Amino acid sequence: LDANISYRLIVGENVDYLPAEFRWLSDQADTLMFQTENLLTIEKGAFANQESPIKDLEGNIYIDDQGVFYLCDEEENTAKVVYCQSGFNDIFIPAVICPDSQGEYQVVAVGKDAFKNADGVQTLRFEKPEQIVTIEAYGFADCTTLCSINGVTEVDDVKTLFGGVVDGIGYRAFYHT
């Protein structure tokens, strides 16, 4: 009997809460996918043995119809892009997301490793790139298929798109991109 069982784990659209104990299911998954258009709460540690950025997912997470994950800060009414699933070619990041009837969240940041291994993503379009105030370390790194952001193809030119970045652009934000 092989003790190393692996499987494809799909978190369905009707799931609204993942406790830390969920790690027992997610640990052996060789593929982890999420249904789109979902708002769920994830406890710290639910994906503890997955690779970054999945392992760091916690809090109120909204997944849009393009497979982009946003961490919603209910106190500040802001959101941060924290992950992007593979399999989407062109991604549009809106200035505001409305995941539920609770209100709107301004998209103001790109999290660490957010687009890491987002295989297939060729173009990113931000509705208001000047609204982004933080791009964390490795934010766009290792997204090897990415060709342009808002039509711009050179890293130095892309950096100027994000004129609102006040906390700076994190370490190696565009590494291997």
Question: Outline of this structure?
Answer:
This protein is mostly beta strands. The chain has helices spanning 23-26, 155-161, and strands at residues 7-11, 17-18, 29-34, 38-42, 59-63, 68-73, 78-84, 90-93, 96-100, 103-110, 123-126, 134-135, 148-149.
If you had to describe this structure to a student in words, what would you say it looks like?
By secondary structure, the protein is mainly beta. It is 6% helix and 34% strand. The chain contains two helices and 13 strands, in the order ββαβββββββββββα. The protein has helices at residues 23-26, 155-161, and strands at 7-11, 17-18, 29-34, 38-42, 59-63, 68-73, 78-84, 90-93, 96-100, 103-110, 123-126, 134-135, 148-149. Strands 2, 4, 5, 6, 7, 9, 10 and 12 form an eight-stranded mixed sheet that branches. It has a three-stranded parallel sheet with strand order 8-11-13, with no helix packed on it. A hairpin with a 2-residue loop joins β9 and β10. It starts with 6 loop residues before the first strand and ends in a 16-residue tail after the last helix.
Shape: globular
Low-confidence stretches: none
Q: What percent of the residues sit in helical stretches (DSSP H or I)?
A: under 10%
Classify the oligomer: single chain
Q: Helix count, per DSSP? A: 2
Could you give the count of β-strands?
A: 13
Structural class: mainly beta
State the order of secondary-structure elements, H for helix, E for strand.
EEHEEEEEEEEEEEH
- Sheet having the most strands: 8 strands, mixed
Distance between the ends = 42 Å
Strand content: 25-35%
Radius of gyration from CA coordinates: 16 Å
Q: Quote the average pLDDT.
A: 89
